[in-house]
Amino acid sequence: MPMKTIVKNLLVVVVLSLVPATHVCAQWKYLGEFKDGLARVRDANENWGFIDKTGKVVIPCKWFDAGSFSEGLAPVLDFTVFKRGFIDKTGKVVIPCQWKNVGFFSEGMAVVVDANDMYGFIDKTGKVVVPCQWKKTGAFREGVAVVTDTNGKCGYIDMTGKVVIPCQWVAAFDYSEGLAVVVDANGMRGFIDKTGKVAIPCKWKNTGAFHEDLSAVQDANNNWGFIDKTGKVVISCKWKNAHNFSDGLAAVQDVQGKWGYINKTGKMVIPCKWKMAVDFSEGLAVVQDANSKCGFIDKTGKLVIPCKWNGVGPFSNGLAQVVDANGKWGYIDKTGKVVK
C-alpha cells in the first residue's frame, strides 16, 4: 500500500537496495530476503539466481532479473526475449516468459501485463483467468483484488474476474482484516467492508491499513493516532508519524523527530530516542541511531544487536540482510552473528 506510513516503514530497508556492495565472501553484488526458503542473489555479471540458507546456489545466476519466491514460484526476466515468466524452486520454467511484466503469486493468482500495458491475472498453470482488460490491478487479498478501469476509477473484482465493488473510487488499496482503504473525490480516506459499504467515513488525510484490529490515521493537523474498526479514535492523534501495529507494538515519531514504540493502550513502552524505527518482525525491530547506523531491539527495547551496520533488512526465516561499513553484504542470525 503506497501510503506515508508504509513508505516510512520501508525506509531503512530501502537503504539496502541503494548500496553497491558484495557479499562478505565477495561473491554477490546483492542478497535478498529469504522467501519460501530461498533468497535471490545477483552475481558480478549482474545476473540473478537463488541460494538456500546454507549459501548453496540452488538456481544458477542466469536471469537478467528475478523476484523473490511466493507460493512456490518466482518471476524471472529472460533477456533474449525481454519477457517475464515464472520458475519453480528447481529453477524449471513452469510459466513461459511471454509477459511484459508480472507480479507475485498471491492466493494462487499473479498479475500479468500484456503487450498493450493492460493488466489481468493468471493461475499457477499459466492459464489466463482474468483477461488483460484493466489499466492497473493490485494482488489478490482476502479473495478480491483492486482494479483500475480505463477512466481511472478503482473498484474490486473476485477471483473469477467479476466486478464485486464498482469502480467509483479515486484510489483503493488491498483489504486487510476485512476492511480496505479508499480515497474519495476530495482526496480523503476511509474504509469499506467486503460488500463495498463505507464502514468508516472518508474523513482522514491519510491512513495505514488495519493490523491487529487498529489502523494508523492522520488528521487535518497532520498528526497521527489510531482508530478501531468502528472508526473510534482509541489512541489520540498526537504523533508526527506512526506505523501499523506489529507484535502488539507500533513505532511512533514524536515532535522532536525521534522514534519509539507504544502499546495498544497508547502507553509509551520503548522511549522515543531512535533516528528511525520500523515494525517488529520475528520478535526484533530495526532501529537506527544518531550516527545512521542500524541494529535491532527486542520488545523490551533492549538493543540486542548493536547499531553498527550501514543498512539492514527485517528478519525473515531467522536471518536478516546486513551491509557493513565497507559496503559488503551478508546475513546475520538473531544473535548478531554473521552467517556465511
Structural commentary:
The protein has helices at residues 4-9, 11-18; strands at residues 22-23, 30-35, 38-42, 48-51, 57-63, 65-66, 74-78, 83-87, 93-99, 101-102, 110-113, 119-122, 128-134, 136-137, 145-148, 154-157, 163-169, 171-176, 179-183, 189-192, 198-204, 206-207, 215-218, 224-227, 233-239, 241-242, 250-253, 259-262, 268-274, 276-281, 284-288, 294-297, 303-309, 311-312, 320-323, 328-332, 338-339. A hairpin with a 5-residue loop joins strand 32 (294-297) and strand 33. The longest helix is centred in the first third of the chain and has 8 residues, at 11-18. 41% of the residues are buried. It is mainly beta and 340 residues long. The two termini are 34 Å apart. The strands form nine sheets. Strands 1, 34, 35, 36 and 37 form a five-stranded mixed beta sheet that branches. It is built from two helices and 37 strands. 4% of the residues lie in helices and 49% in strands. Mean pLDDT is 92; it is low at 1-26.
Structural class: mainly beta
| Spatial gap, N to C terminus | 34 Å
Q: What level of helicity do the residues show?
A: under 10%
- Mean pLDDT, all residues: 92
Q: Beta fraction of the residues?
A: over 45%
Helical segment count:
2
State Rg: 21 Å
Uncertain stretches: 1-26
- Would you count the extended β strands for me? 37
Shape estimate: flat
**Which sheet architecture does the biggest sheet show?**
5 strands, mixed
